[in-house]
Design brief:
By secondary structure, the protein is mostly helical. Helices cover 89% and strands 0% of the residues.
Length: 97
């Protein structure tokens, strides 16, 4: 909810940029936090969730402003299915040894 309000106030492009930088930093810090202790790892993973949590409201905001009304449902379908397809593809490629 906060991510959606923020995207409407500041703009989806800026919020998405913040989210990508935020979760990228958290991803880089994850191995370091895991070596330190479990509480550090949990905090870093929570920070990662904050960065990822603003992504969907920001994408909705961007698409609502840049895509014609009659094409919005199709564009949202492509964006969201692409996210899940990327996860499935990545897990399939990297989990088969």
């Amino acid at each position: 909810i906060a991510g959606g309000i923020w995207a409407d106030t500041v703009g989806g492009k800026r919020v998405l940029g913040f989210g990508v930088i935020w979760w990228s930093i958290a991803t880089i810090l994850t191995p370091v936090a895991a070596k330190l202790s479990l509480p550090y790892l949990l905090v870093v993973r929570a920070f990662m969730g904050v960065g990822e949590g603003v992504a969907m409201p920001a994408m909705n905001n961007i698409l609502s402003k840049r895509v014609h009304v009659q094409e919005r449902s199709r564009s949202l379908t492509l964006v969201y299915s692409g996210m899940y397809l990327g996860s499935v593809t990545g897990l399939t490629i990297f989990s088969t040894g």
